[in-house]
Design brief:
The protein is an alpha/beta fold and 299 residues long. The chain has three domains: 84 residues, Arc Repressor Mutant, subunit A, CATH 1.10.10; 98 residues, D-Maltodextrin-Binding Protein, domain 2, CATH 3.40.190.10; 100 residues, D-Maltodextrin-Binding Protein, domain 2 (3-Layer(aba) Sandwich), CATH 3.40.190. It is built from eleven helices and 13 strands. The strands form two sheets. Strands 3, 4, 5, 6, 7, 8, 9, 10, 11, 12 and 13 form an eleven-stranded mixed β-sheet that branches. A two-stranded antiparallel ribbon has the order 1-2. β1 and β2 form a beta hairpin. α1 crosses α3 and α2 crosses α3.
Amino acid sequence: MSTRFDRLALLETFVRIAERQSLSGAARDLGTSQPSVSRQLAALESRLGVVLVRRTTHDVTLTPDGSALLVDARRMLGEWEAIEDRHSKDDAPKGTIRVIAPVALGQGLFVKAAAKFMKDNPNITIDWRLRDDAIRFAEEGCDCWLKIGPVLDDTLVVRELARVERLVVGTPECLARHAGIDLEAMPWLTLGPFEGNRIELFDRNETPLLFSVTPKMASDNIFAIYEAAMQGVGIAIMPRWFVASDLEDGMLIDAAPDLRAARLPVNLALASGTKRPARVEQFCNAVHDWCDVHLRVSA
């Protein structure tokens, strides 16, 4: 294989192998046979003079050379797609956008933004993955990463989409049962990634109130904490967007109207130093517009 197109095809096959960790899985994605994928992998390894993957009975793992190539291959394929976008006569976006989003926002507000984008752009498909933990962007193969809280990878381009208001909530029954008790002595339900045993709230003058608690329940999952709060077990810090309808219906009450937890940034992270396909930029702009309406960027 000697043409530029053939080299790009080899790289695309390699990326699919890396993402699926399977030759047969890559073959299914590419609409070809496993022997064909094996031959392309062998041709790429021969061209580069290195071993890219280790095969076992159950899966395929990358060698150090393979991991290094994966970063370059994704960047090169992305730049090639950007060239196709610029010179194609068809302006309608098409192809797949790979997104990693936080669990709660990803299956709530953000998925609505993604659904609207797909309806407006019928030739777009989205690979939608939900994760709250930090990722290694280059290894994930995603086009963009939506994250609550800071993005600590300084190799990425980060755009702040919104800042989420968070307040202390509890059911009317829970608050009545513990009437007269100081806030710090209340039964707390805490979300590990953000509170743990340490509660920090701010008054209207931004003066901090800091205290330690022994949580009645602690979890790394917001849905678990929410359900416990709805059952009247205790009070919890919740994003306003998450409990807006419950506050409106009176199922939950703002337990500390003069206090708020720190607003958390909602960030969008992208790879730096590369041309992105037009569909990715358009999707990012659509998510930004959605956040501006539904989360309101706020200082």
